[in-house]
């Protein structure tokens, strides 16, 4: 894959470049701030970008905002955002356009190289991937009367795995269910959340958004 890396921490940026290069990918640009990220993506049209949430000048959410700008100017451009802390609102902001091909992982996940590379590949192929800790936080913060109360425990379990970016086949293997059973449960999730077939916005992404906003 052709990849853009954006992180103001030189050691982490160079470490990512080396990791990705050794895995056979081409890093077409490595930058240290938001505007440079936007410029690099528009110039190179990479298969995916890896972006740190916090970059200059304030080190709050400049990287996230730059990633959103990239997707506004180049709709559907795959972006994997890395964060030091769990911030569910960041994931919701990334998913807001409903286009998929986004990921939100904690930086600790990079040290688990195979998991990180797998997540990166899934985002590049159009999947939505959320860090398991983000999903766990969302589940812990669920409140009474939220929209997900209409779902069964099994349906909420499947929705959480969907939020982590797992395909139907992967969910079936993980839960020891048949593929048809998983499809049936996910169909029930879509129906209960009021998500009819939609040609313009991916129902999987919209279901994850409902999960985030609940």
Cα-to-Cα separation, first versus last residue: 35 Å
The SSE string, one letter per element, is EHEHEHEHEHEHHHHH
* Unreliable parts: none
Spatial arrangement of strands, main beta sheet: 2-1-3-4-5-6
Overall shape: it is globular
How does the major sheet shape up? 6 strands, parallel
Number of discrete helical segments: 10
Cα Rg: 17 Å
Kindly state the mean pLDDT as a whole number?
A: 84
- Would you report the number of β strands? 6
Report helical residue fraction: 40-55%
Tell me the fraction of residues in β-strands, as a range.
Answer: 5-15%
Q: Which structural class do the helices and strands define?
A: alpha/beta
Can you walk through the features of this model?
This protein has a six-stranded parallel beta sheet with strand order 2-1-3-4-5-6, with helices on both faces. It has 214 residues and is α/β, with parallel strands linked by helices. The N and C termini lie far apart (35 Å). Helices cover 51% and strands 14% of the residues.
